[in-house]
Amino acid sequence: MSQRDTTCLVVDDSAVIRKVARRIIEEIGFLVSEAEDGANALEVCAEAMPDVILLDWNMPNKDGYAFLQELRRTEAGLKPKVIFCTTENDVGAIARALRAGADEYIMKPFDRDILTAKLEQVGVSARLDA
Amino acid sequence: MTDLDFEYLRGYIKQRSGLALTAEKRYLVESRLSPLCRRFGAASLHDLIGKLKTPHDKVLERTVVEAMTTNETFFFRDRLPFDLFRDTILPEALARNAGRRKLRIWCAAASTGQEPYSIAMLLQEAGARLSGWQVDILATDISLDVLEKARLGIYSQFEVQRGLPVQWLLKHFTQTGDQWQISPSLRAMVEYRPFNLLHGFEALGQFDVIFCRNVLIYFDAPTKSDILTRFGTSLAPGGALLLGAAETVIGLTDKLIPDAKHRGVYGHAPARPPALRAAVG
Ligand SMILES: C[S@@+](CC[C@H](N)C(=O)[O-])C[C@H]1O[C@@H](n2cnc3c(N)ncnc32)[C@H](O)[C@@H]1O
Predict the structure, then answer these.
(1) Chain B residue closest to A87 (CA)?
(2) Exposed e or buried b for every residue in B196-222, given b needs 16+ CB within 10 A?
(3) B275 located within any domain
(4) Alpha helices of A1-130 — where are they, by DSSP H?
(5) Range of the domain at B97
(6) Rounded mean pLDDT of chain B?
(7) Alpha carbon distance, N-terminus to C-terminus of chain A
(8) Is B112 in the pocket of ligand 1 (CB under 6 A)?
(9) Sign (positive/negative) of CA torsion A97, A103, A104, A109?
(10) Rounded to a whole number, what is the distance in Å from the CA of B178 to chain A's nearest CA?
(11) Which of A57, B99, B100, B169 is the most exposed place for a label (fewest CB within 10 A)?
């Protein structure tokens, strides 16, 4: 079976966080794209659905929650694994995100080890069967 | 710290915990022991090491030995051993012990509890298959400090983030401030006890499964051999020993062999018939 690179969309309103995340995720071997808010992310997904989405929770112009709800409403939007990230360490927020369709949760600031572990946990590796 | 001090300390630690300090670990000794000087009223490391020689101060001895241990751990570390435990080792042990309905598991280097609690979570998830069974998880470590933390079962955001699926975080932990405490039912499943792997295992009894992960790497070959050979005796017939990813029994004991199918799992070596043994020598 042929293989292709796994694609990851990083959604965050902070350019710094996007840059850090991009560097780590590219090192792990994924193809990375970026979006700066939920609305922007929906456009990217409509063009090409990524395999995994690293999703910031608090963003202006459609936050993570609103984005996720909308994404999961479409059939294609059920496919990506979604890891949501926040600085909030709160059961309520985590539970709400899981109900909206997130697969994992990561606390900011994250490092390479944690991000690698979370990607493994949701079952995506750098190469997927095409 | 003089060369002689380092030599003394090396012997001292090796004898008490098995930890083999190579010459390049000198910086580690300095960074970990220097903070203890003030607490024990020592003017310098040289002075502190002097105090170790005489008179006997049990608290100082314990503190120095514990300060040199590495306690790094996380939930479901390396994942594979826990998948194997859930999918193969546990079902086989349940089949083997179906008559007595008793299962004993030993976490021999438990550190702050993430490993024994990972096992406890898997057992709790196994649910009905274990009803009516007596399941013991004995979790031991040389360090009293880590055991104290393990008993409380309170972890930081950083710690619960490593290896623990978020659904299980919500299911098995409650939030206290910015920390997370594991559920009372899981805490009750694990018995924590101080224990030094250099000491005899006889009093602990036999175990169906032994996790001894990421501690033998710190020991020299004779110490590893000794511990592994004694695990051979502590392991119940058909039982499984799980080692860390960088650890093995090969070349260290003839009592245990790698499981042909599962990486990181070890079992009893088949007993050789006496005649063959004589012939092989
Ligand atoms: C790196 S941790 C491993 C924790 C866990 N098993 C894992 O794999 O994540 C090693 C632990 O071994 C303990 N240890 C070191 N020497 C020991 C000894 N002689 N007897 C018992 N425990 C020891 C240390 O205190 C430390 O908590």
Answers:
(1) B157
(2) ebeeebeebeebbbbbbbbbbebbeee
(3) no
(4) 15-28, 38-47, 64-71, 91-99, 112-121
(5) 80-268
(6) 94
(7) 7
(8) no
(9) negative
(10) 7
(11) B99
B146 lines ligand 1 (CB under 6 A): yes
Q: How far is the CA of B242 from the centre of ligand 1 (A)?
A: 14
Q: Which residues of A touch B161 (CB under 8 A)?
A: 106-107, 114, 118
B20-38: b or e for each residue (b if 16 or more CB lie within 10 Å)? bbeeebeeebeebbeeebe
Q: Is B248 on the interface with A (CB under 8 A)?
A: no
Looking at residue B279, its pLDDT comes to: 53
Length of chain B in terms of residues written: 281
| Counted domains in chain B | 2
Residue A68's CB is within 10 A of a number of other CB atoms, namely: 26
**Considering the entire predicted model, what is its pTM?**
0.89
Token pair 């059920």: residue: A78
Domain range spanning residue A26?
3-129
Average pLDDT over residues A57-61: 87
Average pLDDT over residues B256-281: 80
- My answer on whether B63 and B186 are in the same domain is no
In angstroms, what is the C-alpha Rg of chain B? 21
Same domain as B100, residue B43: no
3-state secondary structure (DSSP) of residue B166: helix
* B87, B126: one domain: yes
B131 touches chain A (CB under 8 A): no
Residues A61-72, mean pLDDT to the nearest whole number: 92
Residue A1's CB: how many other CB atoms inside 10 A?
A: 4
Total domains present in chain A: 1
Q: Is A107 in Cβ contact with B170 (below 8 Å)? A: no
Q: What is the pLDDT of residues A84-103, one digit of tens each?
A: 998 777 788 888 899 999 99
Please report which confidence band the pLDDT of residue B281 belongs to, taking 50, 70 and 90 as the band edges.
very low
| Contact between A84 and A41 (Cβ < 8 Å) | no
Residue B46 alpha carbon to ligand 1 centre in Å: 27
What's the average model confidence in pLDDT over B90-102? 96
pLDDT tens by residue, B244-264: 999 999 999 999 999 999 999
What are the counts of helices (DSSP H) followed by strands (DSSP E) for chain B? 13, 10
Pick from B67, B102, B118: which residue ends a domain? Answer: B67
Instruction: Check B166 against A107: CB less than 8 A apart.
Output: no
Half-sphere exposure (Cβ direction) of A124: Cα atoms closer than 13 Å: 28
Q: For residue B279, count other CB atoms closer than 10 A to its CB.
A: 9
